[in-house]
Every structure is written in structure tokens, then in C-alpha cells.
Fold these 4 entries.
Entry 1:
Amino acid sequence: QVQLVESGGGLVQAGDSLRLSCAASGRTFSNYAMGWFRQAPGKEREFVAGFRWSGGSAYYGDSVKGRFTISRDNGKSTVYLQMNSLKPEDTAVYYCAARGGNSAYAYWGQGTQVAVSS
């Protein structure tokens, strides 16, 4: 079992930056591929960024490419999402997730709210 706790959300203006953190506990963090998702009101959950299970390279959803960066610190068992040039359409609850193989994400955090005003 892996427990995930997100933090760093808040209310910002368009063009601002935020860094989200997700602290993991319970299992060996480096054994898991991590990802970030988001869900806006009335919309389906959307993939934001993640690490591939094979090779560990980062990949991004089309709507955030060039603006968001995912990173991880295995020593701190933490994954980060640096969000730059934020837009009102980035407003959502952001969730981090973990998977122990090349399969669906099995573990989810409780989410952190990001609101971007125009």
C-alpha cells in the first residue's frame, strides 16, 4: 500500500507559477512510476504529467506541454509538479498517483485545489 499526500495548491492569477508536491509513504518510492492528473468541475479526469514505467522519462498532456514540469526526489519520496504560465483553464483539483508496473495507476492522493483567476 502506498499513501500519497498532495500540497501546494492555492489561488493565483493568470501567468503566475505554483509548485505542487506529493509526499509518498508506505513502500519503496523508487519502485513506483508517478503521475499527476487533474479534474475540473463537470469534466472528466485528465492526465497532466507522469513518468514512464520503462525508462522513467517524463511525458505530458498536450494542454500543459512547455508550461509544466514533473520531477521527483527519491530521497524525499516526493514528486513535484512545477506549473508555470498558469491559465484559468488550469483550474482544477490536482491529484498525484502511483503505479507499480506498466498498468493502471493504483494509488491516489486526496487532491489539492488549484484556482487561476483571469
Entry 2:
Amino acid sequence: QVHVKESGGGLVQPGGSLRLSCTTSVSISEIYLMIWYRQAPGKQREQVALMMKSGGTHYAEFVKGRFTISRDTAKNTLYLEMNSLKPEDTAVYYCNAHNPWDDPPDYWGQGAQVTVSS
């Protein structure tokens, strides 16, 4: 069983920056995949960025060059640094821990609202 909790959402102006945090209840280094998703009103949830257990990363095209995923293993915390924010980045951002050997394999946080508006 893995518990995850996001923090750091808020209101920011276009072009601004924000950092989301996701804390896990177990060693983050042992989790197979840590993934940031987002869901905008009226839209499906979409994957934003992920970090593998090895530390490898992958980004959705629409955030490449603007968002950075990282982790602090001592704090069991995953981060999403978001720069050059656009109004279309407005969404609820969710942290997901995925362990394919667990049943169910996915653990979700409660979500963090990010609003980009002037």
C-alpha cells in the first residue's frame, strides 16, 4: 500500500512558475513509476511527465522544455517544476505511483489545482 499526497498548487499569471510536490509513504526509489497527470475541466486525464525507478524521465510534448520532473529520495518526494505557464495548463494535477506487481497497481493523490490566469 502506497499513500501519495500532492501540494503546491495555486493561482499564477501566464508566464509564471509553480512547483508541485508529491510525497509518498514508502521509499520513492522502490516505486516502479512515478507519474504526473492532469485533468482540465471537460477533458480526459492526460499524462504530463513520468520518472522511472531508474531515474529516467519522459515528458509529454506539450510540456517539453517548460516542465521538469525530479525527485528527492531522502524526502520520498517527487516534484514537478512548471515554468512558462500558459492558461491551457490550468487543470487539477495528480500524482500517481505505479507498481505493476501490486493489486491494484495504481495509487493516486487527491489532486492539486493549478490555475493560470491574469
Entry 3:
Amino acid sequence: QVQLVESGGGLVQPGGSLRLSCAASGNIFSFNVMGWYRPAPGKERELVATITTGGNMNYADSVKGRFTISRDNAKNTVYLQMNSLKPEDTGVYYCWGGARTYTSWGQGTQVTVSS
């Protein structure tokens, strides 16, 4: 199974930016869909953004216009560019990959938005 490793989290002030990376241990075409999740009140995790092998993207309403998901197939990496960050964006961000017969989760990377 292909493993996922996130990086790029950190502490940023409100209005700032971060770019998260999710590196796969193998070919990311193993996954039909890849995405990012984060904790949410009343839920274990909520969808932040997804991207398919065909490049179709989907975003949570709360991040539309601020976050951009992308993929570099040559580097087997998916990115999440986060702009105009708000304190409510704080949390552990998890990379996820959905393959035909299994799913894979990364270990998470902490994002803290605070002044």
C-alpha cells in the first residue's frame, strides 16, 4: 500500500499563508482521489479539499476562494495552498488517498493560526 507523509504545517498569523505537502511513497495514480481533512466540531474530521486523477477539485464552503489543492504527478505529491488563514483554520491537517481497494491516511501536520 502507498503511504502518505504530510509536511508544511506551522504557526502563522491571521491573514497569512501556508503550503502543505503530502508526499506519497509510490505512484499517486494508485489513488482515484486524494484530499485533505481536518478536525471539526461534532465530527471526527471534515473534508477540506479533494482532487481526482483527472484534476477535478472539490472544496469545503468554508475554504473556497482561500485554499487551493493541486498535484504534481512527477513528484507524487499533493499540495494544499492556504491563503488568508483564519484562527478557525487551526487544527491537524490529514492527507488522504482513496484507492480501489484501500484508503491511506498520513500522520497529520499541525496548523496553528494565531496572533
Entry 4:
Amino acid sequence: VQLQAFGGGLVQPGGSLRLSCAASGLDFGIYTVGWYRQAPGKRRELVASLTSGGNPYYDNSAKDRFTISRDNAKNTVYLHMNSLKFEDTAVYLCNAATGPHMHWGQGTQVTVSS
């Protein structure tokens, strides 16, 4: 199983980014997929998740700014991030989970700076 995240970068406050996470080696459609982030010195936190049935969850910090989506035909989960703030700076990691199975991708760095 492999999850590969990409799309991070340097963006100014108020800007937008789209993160992608491509999965392989698993039955992607049955998994709940999610994006976590971890800033230096802070705990890893769940930003957004999306069940196999299409039900989303957003952390309060992400509501109204971020949108999680998935394309099961491409085995890919996306995180569209708008109105980015300094405090969104972190390494973003994708995750896929079902039952006892959980898989992590490597992180992609998002830096919000002027």
C-alpha cells in the first residue's frame, strides 16, 4: 500500500492550494480518507475526512475554507484550501482507514508566509 501526497508549497495569506494524495495497493473506495497536519512542536491534528459514503468531517479551523473530495476512479483524495492563514502552516499528511487497517502517506509542506 502506498499513499503519495503532493501539492504543497509556499503561499501568501489569503491564497489557495490544492493538495492531492494518490493511493495504490488498496481497495480505495471502501476507505475513509483524511488529511492531517502537524506543525513544529504541535500534535498531529485531523483537518478533514471523507467516508466511503461521501460524508465529510471538518475541524473547526477548516470549516468554510477547506473542501475535501475524492475521485475513486483515480484512487485520489484532494484537499482544496482557500483563504489560507499563517496558522495553516504545517506538514500535511494523507490517511486512509477502514476497520483495523490504517495507512499513511508522506507529508507535503504547506507554508503560508508573506
